[in-house]
Model the fold of this input.
Amino acid sequence: MKKYPALITILFVFFIQTTSVAKDPPKWLRTTLGVVGTVLGVDNKASSTSRSSTSSNGNTARMPSNNYTDYSLGTSHPILIDSKHRDFNIKVKRCVASGDVLIIDLIMTNKSANDIIPFNVYGGAGGNQSTTIYDSEGNKYGGHYASNSNVKIKSGIKSTYSSDDIGQRTLVSNIPTTVSLRVEGFSSSAESVKLIQLSVLADVWNLNWNTKRENCVSIRNIPITRN
Done:
């Protein structure tokens, strides 16, 4: 044993780093490991990085995301969607312009086993909760505190559009729901919708743009069909 003191020390350090103690080691142990690691050339960066990227409750501290590509309008027009949660599926059913009015129909499906309550999607006049749309020419539609917003919204069960929200409070499990956006004053020469920042309320999925603006659902590169 006396012939291999360095090997024994290295094995001890390795054992400490790979056990639960490494997740939140006491100060004296961190100091000891740092000194021993410096003397023996043991790299502690991997375990440090792992700890710094993990919050106190054990969840990875990063922004929520669920990126995927939607080919509903054809393989030549891939649409990029980030619904922010793996159980929240969104597809683009159509994007049609007639004159200066654009209609975008979305299909939303709750893939989880439970109904999502509360649930809501906001139009362009919801204050901090406003949905915002950008076209391929850089024009912006909707936005914060737009009292006469040109971005209106409704769910499939409604007959009229509203600047505020879809008026729906539940997203039923595994039942597709149609959400339609109506944009008035839309450019007659724009070829696509470059970005929809869709304001969705679903606290269960950590979606609440009113308090976490980075949590808006994003839909990019939607081609436009013109009548």
Remarks:
- The first helix runs from residue 5 to 17.
- The CA atoms of residues 155 and 179 lie 4 Å apart.
- The longest strand covers residues 88-98.
- Helices lie at 5-17, 27-40, 45-52.
